[in-house]
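Me: I hope this is not a bother. Any chance you could explain this protein sequence and its structure tokens? It all follows right here:
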Amino acid sequence: MTGLIFPHNKLIMKKNGGITPLTVTYTDSSGTGSNSSSYSFASKSIGAAPSAGQRRFIVVTAGALGSSPRDVTSITVGGVGCALLTTYQPGGGGFHRIGWVEVATGTTATIVLNTSGTMDIAGIGVWAIYSDTNGISVRSEDGGSVTTESMDLNVVAGDVVIGGHINYDAGAVAWTGLTERFDLDTNSNDNVSGADATISVDESPRTMTMTSGGGNRFATSLAVFQPA
């Protein structure tokens, strides 16, 4: 699928060593088969607090599936609302979406996923991205709602890529071009999964693929973060 591109005017500076590469740490995940429109995941690890000269951004991959079309209304980390990227929705009902927010203090937080109606299953993945004092921005994003989602995006050394997935009855997930960090069975073969990559060389494009089993509903989203 063709991704959404967010151009950045500091690419030349970055290639010349003017911008500090991002670092990323996968910190936690959770999944549930409970019916709800507000999922609260308590005491989730959000990684070490940033050191002097650093900023820390928490990235949450969030998905939920149900019997009717729904979407995210908010994702909060410790009560602070995330910026939300594109929603990818399968036919029948549900979504997968990525949110991110700067969190300067603390090592754990309650993460709340609110939806526009009752869902059947839900799950999240949590990452901490560390930058210099300039922070981060989104270079591009991609996703979709098929069994095998192939995502081709341009990346630059120093970027970080984070992806997530949710499915009904499709079971375990395989990722290529990213390292899988979790794959949870929330309810009898209904899985949530997440993966990431730290980019060390420029690629135009880098192909990243999520493959799940048979099932009947899927949603995947992926974002490339860059130094600001």
About this structure: The two ends are 26 Å apart (CA to CA). The chain is about 0% helix and 60% strand. The chain has one domain: 20-227.
